[in-house]
Structures are given as C-alpha cells and as structure tokens.
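Task: complex structure prediction.
Instruction: return structure tokens for all chains below.
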Amino acid sequence: AQKITQTQPGMFVQEKEAVTLDCTYDTSDQSYGLFWYKQPSSGEMIFLIYQGSYDEQNATEGRYSLNFQKARKSANLVISASQLGDSAMYFCAMREGRGTGGFKTIFGAGTRLFVKA
Amino acid sequence: NAGVTQTPKFRILKIGQSMTLQCAQDMNHNYMYWYRQDPGMGLKLIYYSVGAGITDKGEVPNGYNVSRSTTEDFPLRLELAAPSQTSVYFCASSSRAMNTEAFFGQGTRLTVV
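Output:
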C-alpha cells in the first residue's frame, strides 16, 4: 500500500547551517513522483521540489536538494544555509502513476523545522 | 490569476448540521483533491477526482461526499457534522503530468460544536 513516513516530528537547526529532513516511502508502482512542500505558520502550502522515480540525478532547486535513494525508498530534503524564514512545517508527498494508486497524492505527517538565530 | 479558490474561509457548524465546502480552479486541471489537516498533523486525503464525472475515496472518506460535474468545480459535502470533523480542509488541483505539483487553496477552517 502507498505510504509516506516522516519520523522527525521536530528539528532544530542553527541559522546558516544545513539540515536534512527525512522521508521514506512505500509503493508497489514503478512510476511515481515525490514532492516536498513547506507550510509556514500562515497555513498556505508552498511547493519546493520534485523528484521522479526514473530521474537518475537528485533534484535541486536553489537552497533545496533532494537526496533520492531509490533502493532504500528514501527521499530526504536537504536545506542548505538555513534562514530564519525556513522555520515552518515541511511535508513529503508521493503521487503514484498508473498503478493501483490511481494518481492520488498522499502526504506524510510532516516535520516542524525551527531555525535558531 | 485565481488558481484554486475555496469558500468559505471559516465556518462554525452545530453537531448534526450539513454544509458544502466549495472549491473551484481555473487552470483546467484534471486532478482535484480534498484533504483535511488536524492541528499539528499532516494532510489526510478525503476524496479525489481524475476528471469530470470520476471520483474516488481517499484515506478518510467517511462522513463526506463529493461530486465533479465540471472540470472546474469539486465541492465537498459534510452530512451530519460531528466534532471529529473539526479540521482545516484544503482543496488542491494538479495537471496530468507526473512532475507537476499540486496547487492548493487557502483552506477552510471548520469547527463543529
């Protein structure tokens, strides 16, 4: 069954340092996509980065990179040079392809990141 | 430039009342989703739709109904509201392409008392 697991309820990082947020997933599909979203205290959902199951290179978007280890079924988000504005809730999500998942997108429980000055 | 529009933004319901949360998107997206987010928690998929006339259950469909008569609209119906349905509800849409993100509405904060 389709499942996303984020095992870190909360994380602290010092400003300007890098931080890794963990995400593991489970799916029987060969074709799927992995997403990370940020939810600040204002509540909106902000898309950060995408990784496809067939992508051979790790995705990068500015200070965000995705450490994709397909055999281990992990898709960890790395934020470099943390900023105070990075303090937020972060969600990992997975969208399946044409398998039994039926194109639905499910989310993990989230990790709350606190950036310290 | 509207994207995904949800109404209302806030609502208080009494136990046993019914209501419809409205969701509309203007991006011609095939896929639409309803999620609920309980305080401090992740998003749980309630229902989703891959196109007009097609809907399917997500992870937590009990107590809810949906319809998709047009590409643009995807209303969520709550029948016989219960305190357990107190939550923030998000509607989202995305295109067919696997590598496109979901676009979210601003959310509806629902309290059932």
